[in-house]
Structures are given as C-alpha cells and as structure tokens.
Amino acid sequence: MRSFKRKLSCEKLGISPGQIIFCLELLQKMAYSKNQNEYAALHAQLEAHALVKVVDYFNTNSHVIREEWVMGMIFQSGNFLDTTNNRLERLNAKWKSVISKYSSLEVFPEKFYVIITAFRIERNHTAAMAVHKKRAAPFPPGSAEDD
What we know:
Layout: H1 2-7, H2 10-13, H3 17-31, H4 36-49, H5 52-61, H6 66-69, H7 71-76, H8 87-98, H9 107-132
Helix pairs in contact: 3-4
C-alpha cells in the first residue's frame, strides 16, 4: 500500500484527491480479498472506474504478482501462516539463535525439539489470533472499510 500511496499523487498523475482516495480504498480491498473471485470483481471495478494511468501502473507492477500480496491468495498458497518475505532467512535466524554452530550431536536433538515446539506454538498462536480477531472500533455503515 505504501508504494501505491507514493505513486498515486495529484501532481504525478494529474488526478483529483477524490479519485486518489477511491483508488486507494479499492486497492486496499483488493489486498484483503479472501479469494480469487473477490479479487477479480474488485479488479474489474478498478479497470471500469479508475484512470488509465492508474490501471496501467497497477497491471504492470502489482497484478502480475498478486499471489504475493493479496491476503486470500497468500494463505491458499501453502505458506503455513508465515507472511514474511524471506521465510528461509527467518527460519535460519531462529535455528541459529537456539543451536550453536559447534554443538554436539547429543545436544542437537534436544535443541531441535525446542525449536519445533516453538514453531508449533507460534503457528497455533497466529492461527488463533486470526480466528479471534475483532475490530476495535467499527467503521460507520456504508463506508469503504465496512464490509
């Protein structure tokens, strides 16, 4: 969303602030789409109502990599509730924090089970928080955020 906010400006594209707000709200809805069908409907709405420059920028830079940033598609791709950009580096850092470089073969299984347990607890916590999450303050009815 940050890159969209930087690129969508009145000076750069020559569009009104109202059009910018409309496009950003629609792009945010697209980012939180639950599945491919919802994303496709929002993308069609963007193409129908947004300016050609905005649609061209979006199709060139973001539409082609939608599996990486649309939340519904991220969780369908089998990422095990891990939303970081570089999963391998994250896992490697956790391994290094628990297992020292020259640890013995006797110590390794013990530390290995500690790491596996920590990963399971973290995964379960993330899944539980996703299920139990509620809005702190509801948006007014009819606003772009209210779905």
